Amino acid sequence: MKILITGGAGYIGSVLTPTLLGLGHEVTVLDNFYFKQSTLLDCCQHEKFQIVRGDSRDEALMKNLVARADVVIPLAALVGVPLCNTDQIATRTTNQEAVEMLCRLAAKDQRILMPVTNSGYGVGEKGKFCTEDSPLRPLSTYGVTKVKAEEAVLSRENSISFRLATVFGMSPRMRTDLLVNDFVYRAVYDRAVVIFEGHFKRNYIHIRDVVRVFLHGIEKFEAMRGRPYNVGLDDANLSKLELCAVIQKHLPKFVYLEAPIGEDPDKRDYIVSNARVAAAGFKPEWSLDRGIRELIKGYTILRNSVYANV
User: What is the pTM of this model?
Assistant: First the structure.
């Protein structure tokens, strides 16, 4: 198939793009290379790979690129509460308005597979799983823009949205700021972390299972279209303190403490049911433990010592 990925050189795209090329798809990536990443250099060997340096908010550019695609996967976004808070205008225009424009540009028979965040659930009811029918109560600009983008995508017939749990795992365009990735990095190099509001719970999913769910959605599109799907690990609805305990099993010298004062700027707190995507035939392959082992190996290679003397 002819697949257009916006933001295809980002954290998820840098794993998804080579996977799709390896399966024989024709892949065009649009990216502004905001983080100066060079993660897709190895993809340039593929004749079916095209790369465009540009902005997903550029309507003339998008109109040309969308017209040639069978499937569009809009990954381009400002991701995470801290980054979105630094530029709320860019967050709204990229995360929401660019996706709304994409929906206007796409023909009815073109398919859109949209990743959003399950942080749209905000604060769930204690002990009650959030399903795709639960009310959406996003707490951050990031969550609000993703919820509105999902509304636009699902308002058309040929679309699927994946409400991703907090993603973890190694990527050529690594993000050490994601919760599991961050805590494992601190466990490896600092051997300690101070936690704010450690009882807050959320769900987790490995980046390669995120890629697999996109492949599953492409393959099973007709049966799955028109609906949102939570994508996470059923056995990883964990609080921050519970997550640290899992990491400590792999790195026994890791010490974690909960701060008696202070707040986490990301206030989401919920547990999630992934039953709908399971009923659609998708099952994750990467457990939290397997991902932690991968991250420990990855951080043996990746060490941010640019500003340190040792």
Answer: 0.95
